[in-house]
Amino acid sequence: MEAAKDKGIELVTNTEVTAVEGEPGNYRVALTHKPWYVDIDKCSGCGACVDVCPITMPHEWEQGLKARKAIYALFPQAAPLKYVIDREGCVECGLCMQVCGLDAVDLSQEPYTEEVEVGAIVVASGARVFDPSVIEQFHYGKFENVVTNMEFERICNAAGPTAGELVRPDGKHIHSIAFVQCVGSRDLSHNRWCSFFCCMAAVKGGRLVMEHAPGAEVMVFYNDLRACGKGFEELYTRSVEEGMKFVRSIPSVHVNWTSNNPIIVYEDPDESRVVSKEIDLVVLSCGLEPAEGTSQLAELLSLEKDAYGFLAERHPTDGVAETKRKGVFIAGICQGPKDIPDAATHGSAAAAKVGVFLSNGKPQRKCGEVDIRNSGGVEPEFPGGNGSGESGQDA
Amino acid sequence: MSSDSDHENEELRIGVYVCHCGLNIAQTVDCRSAAEYAETLPDVVVARENMYSCADPGQIQIKDDVAEFGLNRVVVAACSVKMHGPTFMNVCTEAGLNPYLFQMVNIREHCSWVHMQDKEGATAKAKDQIKMAVAAVRTAKPLEDRIVPMADSVVVIGGGVSGLQSAVDIADAGYRVHLVEKAPYLGGRSVQLNRIFDRMERISCVVTPLIMRALNHPNINVYTSTDVEEITGYIGNFKVKIRSLGRFVSDECDACGKCEGVCKSEAQDEFQVGFGKRRAIHLPHKESLPYRYVIDPLLCEDCGACADACPKGAIDLSATETEETITAGAIVLSIGGQPYQPEEGNRWAYDGSNDVFTALEMERLLHSEGPTAGRPLRRTDGNLPSRVAFIQCVGSRDEEHPWCSRICCMNTIKEALTIKARYPHVRVSVYHDDIRLYKKEHEDFYRLARDSGVAFLRAKVSEVRPKDGTLEVVASDEILDTETRQDVDMVVLATGTMRSEDAQKLGDMLKVPTSGDGFFLEAHPKLRPLETAIDGVFLAGTCQYPKDIGDCLLQAGGAAAKCLGLLSNELIQLDAIISHIDQDKCNGCLVCVKKCPFAAVVTDEVEIDGKKKKRARVIEASCKGCGVCAARCKQGAVEAQGFTDEQIDDQIDAALEEDPGGKILAFVCHW
């Protein structure tokens, strides 16, 4: 919302970068705007079109847990809130055109490319979540009551497919739940790195279940519980005290097809025996991996990838917000998994690098002439003066 | 006629908007009924419900209604004013309405979320809140935002890696930076360390170039051996009073060391964490920058031998402390942290004289410029150990220090690998709980340590017992579910990180709050990790939470970005919710001056009937609008703008008009 309102930011969505030319400080970037099939200058986001659209399709934002129409906005707080038509599903019945009071629907739109000139580029293209259907022991994709952490986020979300009611995909309320950590992560057969955010996400998810359904049983199957961020250890300790059960074990998931419940089978380290337990829902804490198209993006921008396939930073200690290409900066999980505070910090650090790069040492404003060090403690006059003897003159 | 009375005579036309927030509110609160109720309140001309008032259609609706119905007051019942207050104030401004003729009530957290099981009660409470907001907005006055000048310089407090990075980034963009460091050298804790995980580069390869850039930067004034004495002022115009030790040794010094040879006074060398001694005149460390000798004034006996011995005449023992006050538009706090030091009688048998070491001591042992030239030798007999045990979470994740220090697992892996690489025959074991790593490359490093033969034991150490020249580590092994005992020659404690000893002092000076772990508290744990509750004060590095060097540098860069964003303006806008003191009503009791948590109320001397009297005055730019002064004033001389007594009285009347016996009413924070 802040970004959408900022007058210094032009928000260009539904658009892909298709070519980058030029040199640091003077890049020409080709932006290919995909058609919305809706004139977004006219669309007010009222949503009348959605009501009349006869086509339903799987809802990618809701992780397929809910349907959407062929004309849709991904979620109600999307910025900008403009509707778009999915031509894969649209049958061109024209009902949306008839109902739109603003005459905004325009099926004749074609993709078009425009070129923008910029001084610097920040890549913040994100990552994707590991697909656990390749690991057979969890029955994911074959049995509905095993979900990924992203699907579970939507189940927990008040604006999600279940309206925030904690019910599993078959509609039953959740009273017992197991989180399985490191799915596809720290695993030599899949992704060998740790994704870091998933431990605390499981603790948070478990707490939500305990809040919504008092007395609910929450189990977290983990390897190392990586609560190493500010306040994380304290939240983890409190969750243990409040009854969340942490089991250091890697389980497998079976199915009771009669009750439609998952059965979690694990070695209980406390009792040194194998336990099988029927519960309501299994959440697979899937890690992050390089986003689809990372290679193409790297090629487009002449960037390197690291040993894991993420975009490579210039240096892992003192060049984490930069790339080896001057004028191209990097932020967030396209560089490697992070939690939100680390990603926000990374973004700010990239902003500083861009600011410095574009300023070329010249401040953005008039600076004072008085050097406070020689002013004998006399308060300099405002505005303007304050101690910038040399600033602005060195560039 | 003033514009104020214009407003007073104006016919009130109030619009009320009740937000569903998807189902966040609507699942508990009956929004339709709340909106219908609002329409019955006096002077409400339109009341509506919206799916998302904050989304574009909701905002457009308000603007359209202002135009269509001639609204001159707006009430939104939605989420937290902290979250979306600015959004709707902006909508009011865009609609041509003064943004302070607006009230917002939080029916999401305050009604829907806390009363999820009681839909009727939640709806009734939401209606009361709306009624109160309508009452308050009736007497709201249009206010003007404050405009204050922004100085074009920044003070960075702390010259470790974080402070250096912030300083260099800000200076590179063309602004003046004053970098204040307590120690006589730059680089802070980092320059005591040996190598950086996981690439095993020498610290100095990263830090020395950064220090050189700061020292040589035309836009950076570096103050070493300097303490912050006092900070006053506010965003745009902070006054930072600093006091520097006398410069006994001038820049003429070329570190030839002749002075040190004649100096008689000795003390423990703090840089080498107690290994060896240093003289009163000394070079803090071999790569010390600025590269010149310093004199410890507490130790120096003023004998003058060093001054006589100096071939450059660089030593002046009569130098005195200097004090100056620097103006800054913003402040970066980067004072770092400090390692936990085991107390006397600790269960790890650490006493500084046997073969139990802290992680920092091990860094010095492994450092080529350290006391043993990089060899991890035993303190007791100077021999290389053949069995070393690392113990994790010492001073972390315990009752007294419930936080995780984040960096110690990787640091241990690094030290263990360093030992293994140089002395492959040394048996290294690590006693740990969880191994906590957090970056993409860490896992490979951990795997390398295991492949190199470092034994990772998931076990809790209950005790270390000195025993005939060796150390017995007693632990309960989680995997084996039994007590284990192992004799080793050396124990290394992975000591945690605690807040700096200066955190309290600087926190008090700046009114920057700390979190439960003692580290400085960021403005929002997820989205504003670099800002503090105080406008214009930013956090960089370990003073916010333990971090590795890469994360320190990132956060410092981020803090620099925040400073640059502020500094690019010659004037900045602050909101109008502040206190105003009517000096005619003030009786000079000055309770408000004492109680103001932000030092924003000052004492004026004014002449009344020929006599000098004391009267309180608010420094508008410093005022945070907390209202403490207004609540304390017995004379009714203080008006908290936006929260006037009249508005609060009207809200109380509105809330308690019906069923007063069945309600508890509290005015708490503006949240």
Give me the secondary-structure topology.
The complex is a heterodimer of chains A (395) and B (671).
Chain A: H1 2-5, E1 15-23, E2 26-33, H2 48-52, E3 56-58, E4 67-69, E5 71-72, E6 84-85, H3 95-99, E7 112-118, E8 121-123, E9 127-129, E10 146-148, H4 149-156, E11 176-183, H5 197-212, E12 217-222, H6 232-241, E13 245-248, E14 252-256, E15 261-268, E16 273-278, E17 281-286, E18 288-290, H7 294-301, E19 328-330, H8 340-359
Parallel strand pairs in A: 8-19, 10-17, 11-12, 11-17, 12-13
Antiparallel strand pairs in A: 1-2, 2-7, 3-4, 5-6, 9-18, 14-15, 15-16
Chain B: H1 3-9, E1 14-19, H2 31-39, E2 44-50, H3 56-69, E3 73-78, H4 81-94, E4 102-106, H5 108-113, H6 119-138, E5 146-149, E6 153-157, H7 161-172, E7 176-180, E8 195-196, E9 201-202, H8 203-216, E10 220-223, E11 226-234, E12 237-244, H9 258-262, E13 266-268, E14 277-279, E15 281-282, E16 294-295, H10 305-309, E17 322-328, E18 330-333, E19 337-339, E20 356-358, H11 359-366, E21 387-394, H12 408-422, E22 427-432, H13 442-451, E23 455-467, E24 470-477, E25 482-488, E26 490-495, E27 497-499, H14 503-510, E28 537-539, H15 549-567, E29 571-574, E30 579-581, H16 591-595, E31 601-608, E32 611-618, H17 628-632, E33 638-640, H18 645-656
Parallel strand pairs in B: 1-2, 1-3, 3-4, 6-7, 6-18, 7-10, 18-28, 20-26, 21-22, 21-26, 22-23
Antiparallel strand pairs in B: 5-29, 8-9, 11-12, 12-17, 13-14, 15-16, 19-27, 23-24, 24-25, 30-33, 31-32
Keywords:
heterodimer, A: 395 residues, alpha/beta, FAD/NAD(P)-binding domain, five-stranded parallel β-sheet, three-stranded antiparallel β-sheet, 8 helices, 19 strands, disordered C terminus, B: 671 residues, Rossmann fold, seven-stranded mixed β-sheet, 25% strand, globular, disordered N terminus
Describe this structure in words.
- The complex is a heterodimer of chains A (395) and B (671).
- The longest helix of chain A is centred in the last third of the chain and has 20 residues, at 340-359.
- In chain A, α4 packs parallel to α5 and α5 runs parallel beside α6 (232-241).
- In chain A, the strands form 7 sheets. A 5-stranded parallel sheet of chain A has the order 10-17-11-12-13.
- In chain A, 40% of the residues are buried.
- Among the domains of chain A are: 127-288, 3-Layer(bba) Sandwich (FAD/NAD(P)-binding domain); 367-395, no CATH class.
- By secondary structure, chain A is an alpha/beta fold.
- Chain A is built from 8 helices and 19 strands.
- Chain A has helices at 2-5, 48-52, 95-99, 149-156, 197-212, 232-241, 294-301, 340-359, and strands at 15-23, 26-33, 56-58, 67-69, 71-72, 84-85, 112-118, 121-123, 127-129, 146-148, 176-183, 217-222, 245-248, 252-256, 261-268, 273-278, 281-286, 288-290, 328-330.
- Chain A starts with a helix and ends in a 36-residue tail after the last helix.
- Chain B is α/β, with parallel strands linked by helices.
- Chain B has 4 domains: 3-144, Rossmann fold; 153-245 and 321-336 and 500-567, 3-Layer(bba) Sandwich (FAD/NAD(P)-binding domain); 338-498, FAD/NAD(P)-binding domain, CATH 3.50.50.60; 579-640, Alpha-Beta Plaits.
- In chain B, β24 (470-477) and β25 form a beta hairpin.
- In chain B, α12 packs parallel to α13.
- In chain B, 51% of the residues are buried.
- Residues 1-5 of chain B have low confidence and may be disordered.
- At the A-B interface, α6 and α8 of A face α3, α4, α7, β17 and α13 of B.
